[in-house]
Write a structure and sequence with these properties.
Oligomer: single chain
Strand content: 5-15%
Number of strands: 3
CATH superfamily: Intergrase catalytic core
Distance between the termini: 27 Å
Length: about 200
């Protein structure tokens, strides 16, 4: 596999000089999702934001036919990439079950949107749930879930390769993904201590 190309050193420097985005760690996300559990639509929406890293507009464009229950994947459409307007993301088995139950309960057809609410309503769901879960308002934004997904992928025992994360997030340029690697620099010593010379 070829390594991704960074268009310019200036572009890379700008990306890496940006502040680390606001995010939730996994334990915090569990608290937020527990807060939403009584409202199945909200719970599924927040779960998919967290487990796919999709932008809110992309998730709202998702139709039932974009979900493949057999292969446990979801097709995410993006307006930001003209050459590759759709990416296919894996979905956890338990989440597939939640999606399937939701489709049946809501009586959705193949061409139906998975979520039939506006962008403004989506923002409201996120804001209200995050605040009710006891977290500060400045993280109560759908994009915080996207950042949380990316950082969670990198903090695994076996981190997701940055090139894979780039594709999952639908970034056109690797420099947009590299911002998330800054969190790894905080614990750089632990990596050095494991290197054998």
């Amino acid at each position: 596999m070829a390594l991704p190309v960074v268009r310019s050193s200036k572009e890379l420097a700008v990306a890496l000089s940006q502040d680390l985005p606001k995010y939730f760690v996994r334990g915090e996300m569990e608290i937020i999702l527990a807060e939403a559990r009584e409202k199945p639509k909200n719970f599924l929406f927040l779960t998919l934001l967290w487990q796919t890293g999709a932008r809110v507009s992309e998730l709202l464009m998702t139709r039932v036919r974009d979900i493949n229950l057999a292969t446990r994947t979801i097709g995410i459409h993006t307006l930001k990439r003209k050459r590759k307007p759709k990416r296919v993301l894996p979905v956890k088995p338990e989440t597939v079950g939640i999606i399937a139950a939701y489709i049946v309960t809501e009586k959705l057809e193949s061409a139906d949107f998975l979520f039939k609410f506006s962008r403004q309503w989506a923002f409201k769901i996120v804001k209200e749930t995050v605040i009710q879960a006891g977290f500060e308002k400045d993280r109560a934004h759908p994009h915080t879930f996207r950042h949380s997904f990316a950082i969670n992928c990198l903090l695994q025992e076996e981190p997701v390769p940055i090139t894979v994360l780039k594709e999952w997030l639908g970034h056109a340029n690797i420099t947009n993904t590299l911002i998330y690697t800054k969190i790894l620099a905080r614990d750089a010593r632990q990596y050095f201590d494991k290197i054998r010379f």
